[in-house]
Design goal:
- The protein has a single domain, classed as NAD(P)-binding Rossmann-like Domain (Rossmann fold), CATH 3.40.50.720.
- It has a seven-stranded parallel sheet with strand order 3-2-1-4-5-6-7, with helices on both faces.
- Helix 1 packs across helix 6 and helix 3 packs parallel to helix 4.
- By secondary structure, it is of the alpha/beta class.
- The protein starts with 9 loop residues before the first strand and ends in a 12-residue tail after the last strand.
- The structure holds nicotinamide-adenine-dinucleotide.
């Protein structure tokens, strides 16, 4: 690690060109972190932004090597990049299945593997962004649900393998509106919390989990879904 590493904590947030990832990057920056963002799309968060495909091992390794070279340390890794393909299983190709698994799940394995040394040196932490769909499904979402269930299991496996140096936790969002969509009163009212979620509902949890007050929290999942996974629904 570079001897010029500063005292400022460094976080890497993937999939941060927009949506939840951009919200997490902005929150950590506001909290005083130096943030590096990575995405296949350009970003305009004001953080150092790297164009990289998280499903590609070489790109992930180059991204992490660049952080060691440029920043000299890594204290938090937020594995947020993700995609969803909705298709009946008969129409879902093996290549599509693999692409979803690569981006949503294998990326976290690659990122953790490449970052372990720097994160351990910093006594840092990893946060994975899974989904309430790790626990429940709509039709035609097999690849996404499987990837998020895998990510949840990878989280506790990593927590056990990489502790005590590195804490590893998972945030599972429910419905988070990242596009300022036209939402109906019914959309909000169906949630026990009375509203659809926003990016801040996720970034606040990530800020806690990567912060000094979460020292006893590892291997855990935090559902931020407005209560939807606790709600029984029977036909009317
Ligand atoms: N929004 C929700 O309701 C919701 C609910 C549950 C879970 N999530 C999860 O939260 C995360 C962020 O979701 P979002 O709603 O902000 O989605 P989004 O589509 O708005 O943003 C995802 C970002 O990931 C990037 N990305 C896609 N493939 C990539 C790749 N190969 N390499 C690097 N970056 C890549 C995209 O370019 C995009 O900027 C995802 O993992 C998603 O599965 C979202």
């Amino acid at each position: 690690m570079s001897s010029t590493a500063s005292d400022q904590r460094v976080a890497l947030v993937t999939g941060a060109a927009q949506g939840i990832g951009a919200g997490i990057a902005a929150r950590l920056k506001r909290d005083g972190w130096r943030v590096v963002t990575a995405d296949i799309k350009p970003g305009d968060s004001g953080s150092r932004h790297v164009i990289a495909d998280m499903g590609d091992e070489e790109a992930v390794n180059a991204l992490v090597a660049g952080i060691e070279r440029e920043e000299g340390r890594l204290d938090a890794l937020v594995c947020n990049a993700g995609i969803m393909i909705r298709k009946p299983i008969a129409e879902l190709s093996l290549a599509e299945w693999r692409r979803v698994l690569d981006i949503n799940l294998t990326s976290a394995f690659l990122l953790a593997k490449a970052s372990e040394r720097m994160l351990a040196a910093a006594k840092g932490s990893i946060v994975t962004i899974a989904s309430s769909r790790a626990h429940q499904s709509e039709p035609n979402t097999e690849s996404y649900s499987a990837s998020k269930g895998g990510l949840l299991a990878l989280t506790h496996a990593l927590a056990v393998s990489l502790g005590p140096a590195i804490r590893v936790n998972c945030v599972s969002p429910g419905w988070i509106d990242v596009q300022a969509s036209a939402l109906s009163a019914k959309d909000h009212a169906q949630h026990p919390a009375g509203r659809v979620g926003k990016a801040e509902d996720i970034s606040s949890l990530v800020a806690f989990l990567t912060g000094p007050e979460a020292g006893f929290v590892t291997g855990a999942e935090f559902l931020s879904d407005g209560g939807m996974t606790r709600k029984m629904i029977y036909a009317e």
